[in-house]
Q: What sequence folds into this?
């Protein structure tokens, strides 16, 4: 029976998609798990996997074409099957949409029979870009009494690890996502209700009608070479891209021996191309080779153990990698570097900090000077869109903060309207909460410009990747004491180097240079920032 495949909704804001590449052609045999195509959404280009077996009978959207979500993407069925009725909009066979409707009706009817007091808790959407979440820690276990306001679990999103609070009271009857496992938004996370209530049917029905059950990610283990060789996959399915499978077949490579470097251990093209059968040896071969080597070499050779550790990528680390890659390879970066005379800034800071209950850092001064310079050069405070360039006349500066799992960027809203002391207080508060994983996603949204400061680590100069959709990011180095020329004489001075990374689509070289000149004037004459 032919199945209609529609353009999927691959992000929360996606309304249409573009077929970047078809990895199958009409007439090809399709198996569940095969990648049909690469779909370009409003946020990324993603692989689209088939959930059906059969033959690809029809392609509805060609490469490079865009179409709204739910448009006819493809039809999969048996070879030679008549699909004319489906192409003409008929209903000779059951379509995917009809099946979903029937399942939804079944769930609705079962929901009516839900026992009194039972509440289904689903994976929450804790950030604007979150599509999946990982349960970092369960703070309650099945059988525990839960009160409204109790913390059920810590959920790891693409931006931070956050505490998830219960809005219901009852007994924790069921846990749907185990610690370390990931699941899409709206998947059953837990069920609360009166103690002793049987909720097995509720959990099963909800999964059928809402979100398909996601395979659990295999736990990453650190093992010796001998144990790793002996272990074999028991799942019966090798997770590999179609191209990787094809190359492996041509080269006669057993994919069960290939270690995948893709997401969730998926084997990709480079894994197969770089695979060497000589790297897979039996324990006895390894011992024999080691013995021969020892016998052949007379001088003493230290015998050590090769030790490697694999750490599963967090949602934050995956998101950082994806967004920085997108920025670096889509925005044409260029860099402008300038050196600042910091003698007046040092003197001004000492005077300000001499006042009661006042504490200002050099980073606070950089933020304030940047905000004031952005008001004078709003094109640097812009973002690129395919149809237009957006000039932001409000200034929201993001401040990069290093945390245990990676990097977050809290945002100071309307920075140009803040005083130096207000900036200092806000940055200290948000940075502290970010490191303690207490900052909210809304506090990391809406930046128009970003500052990254590594001066406190002694880094004198560096370049950063633009934090899109911003058009620029300022990299701030350390203050260095060195000989400088003033009024024709060599004296000891204090300098600081800053580098502005710009998106050439929105910020021309002259515009970026003028911004840095204005920024330099504010930093070298801090009194002008107090006016």
A:
């Amino acid at each position: 029976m032919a199945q209609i495949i529609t353009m999927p909704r691959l992000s929360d804001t996606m309304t249409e998609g573009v077929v970047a590449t078809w990895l199958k052609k009409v007439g090809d045999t399709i198996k569940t798990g095969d990648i049909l195509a690469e779909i370009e959404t409003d946020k990324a280009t993603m692989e689209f996997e088939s959930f059906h077996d059969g033959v690809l009978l029809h392609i509805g959207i060609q490469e490079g074409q865009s179409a709204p979500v739910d448009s006819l993407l493809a039809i999969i069925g048996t070879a030679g099957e008549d699909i004319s009725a489906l192409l003409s909009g008929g209903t000779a066979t059951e379509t995917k949409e009809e099946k979903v409707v029937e399942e939804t009706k079944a769930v609705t009817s079962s929901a009516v029979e839900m026992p009194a007091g039972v509440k289904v808790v689903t994976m929450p959407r804790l950030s604007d870009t979150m599509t999946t979440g990982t349960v970092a820690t369960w703070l309650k276990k099945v059988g525990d009494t839960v009160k409204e306001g109790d913390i059920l679990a810590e959920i790891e999103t693409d931006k931070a690890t956050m505490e998830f609070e219960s809005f219901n009271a009852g007994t924790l009857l069921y846990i749907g996502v185990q610690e370390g496992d990931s699941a899409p938004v709206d998947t059953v996370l837990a069920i609360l209700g009166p103690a002793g209530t049987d909720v097995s049917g509720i959990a099963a029905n909800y999964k059928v009608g809402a979100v398909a059950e996601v395979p659990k990610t295999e736990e990453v283990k650190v093992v010796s070479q001998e144990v790793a060789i002996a272990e074999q996959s028991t799942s019966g399915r090798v997770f590999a891209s179609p191209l990787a499978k094809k190359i492996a077949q041509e080269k006669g490579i057993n994919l069960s021996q290939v270690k995948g470097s893709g997401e969730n251990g998926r084997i990709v093209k480079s894994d197969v191309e770089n695979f060497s059968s000589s790297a897979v040896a039996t324990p006895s071969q390894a011992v024999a080779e080691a013995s021969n080597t020892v016998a052949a070499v007379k001088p003493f050779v230290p015998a050590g153990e090769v030790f490697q550790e694999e750490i599963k990528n967090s949602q934050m680390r995956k998101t950082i990698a994806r967004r920085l890659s997108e920025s670096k390879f889509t925005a044409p970066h260029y860099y402008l570097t300038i050196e600042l005379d910091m003698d007046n800034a040092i003197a001004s800071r000492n005077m300000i900090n001499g006042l009661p209950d006042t504490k200002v850092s050099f980073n606070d001064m950089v933020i304030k000077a940047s905000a004031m310079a952005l008001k004078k050069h709003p094109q640097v405070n812009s973002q690129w869109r395919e149809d237009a360039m957006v000039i932001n006349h409000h200034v929201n500066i993001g401040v990069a903060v290093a945390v245990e799992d990676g990097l977050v960027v809290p945002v100071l809203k309307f920075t140009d309207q803040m005083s130096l002391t207000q900036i200092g207080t806000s940055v200290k508060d948000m940075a502290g909460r970010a490191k303690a994983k207490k900052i909210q996603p809304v506090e990391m949204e809406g930046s128009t410009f970003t500052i990254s400061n590594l001066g406190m680590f002694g880094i004198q100069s560096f370049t950063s990747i633009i934090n899109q959709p911003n058009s620029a990011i300022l990299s701030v180095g350390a203050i260095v004491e060195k000989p400088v020329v003033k009024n024709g004489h060599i004296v000891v001075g204090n300098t600081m180097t800053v580098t502005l990374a710009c998106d050439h689509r929105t910020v021309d070289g002259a515009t970026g240079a003028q911004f840095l000149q204005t920024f330099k004037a504010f930093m070298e004459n801090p009194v002008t920032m107090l006016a």
